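Sequence of Maleylpyruvate isomerase family mycothiol-dependent enzyme (Streptomyces griseosporeus).
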Amino acid sequence: MTDVRERDPELPGRLLTTERDALVPLLRQRADDDYARPVEACPGWSVRDVLAHCSAALKRVVEGRYEPGVFTPENNARDIAERSAWSNAQIVDELERGMTEAGPVMAGSDGRMDLIALGEWVHAGDVREALGEPNAYGGPGLPHALTLLAWGTQTLGHIPLQADLDDVDEPLRLGGVGVDQHRHVARFIGDSATLVRLYAGRPTAGAAYELTGVEPRELNIFG
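Predicted 3D structure, token representation.
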């Protein structure tokens, strides 16, 4: 069973640059109308809004700007509003820079920012889904995302869960550090993308999976 307990400081950067190379070319091929599409996972936000939020968050990481209230809904709304006069191409440019430059900053930190990279990758999946792209929460970044998810849930002392993944050879152990060791270990059987959806609080309608010992809402690490 794969049990990720040691932090890999380079992992967030690898996830971000892998996703950059997959997402940015896709965005540059899209018409402006596509940026106005609603994003189901982020009610009230368009594709453009999600991308503006992501680029702003990464810029904060790069510049070390964490004023009070950072990453709250109100702060996120201000970040998006500040970019309202920008073209879609300018937002993608800022996102590309952020996905390139944030990794080394995260690597040099104490790990508290690492899950921002996972959140960015999840938002990229939100965007792909809104654009009608297949395998929205998959692609080349998925192995890195799973490793970061496993480490993050263990660091957070999340509910212990064994994931038997259809598309990964070894079972994955999530959570379990710093929690009641007498608690029954929950179990997930299904594909990796659905596991990510559950931990990110994203819709799983139509997905075939089994989850025992825990309610889906208990897995959400971003809620």
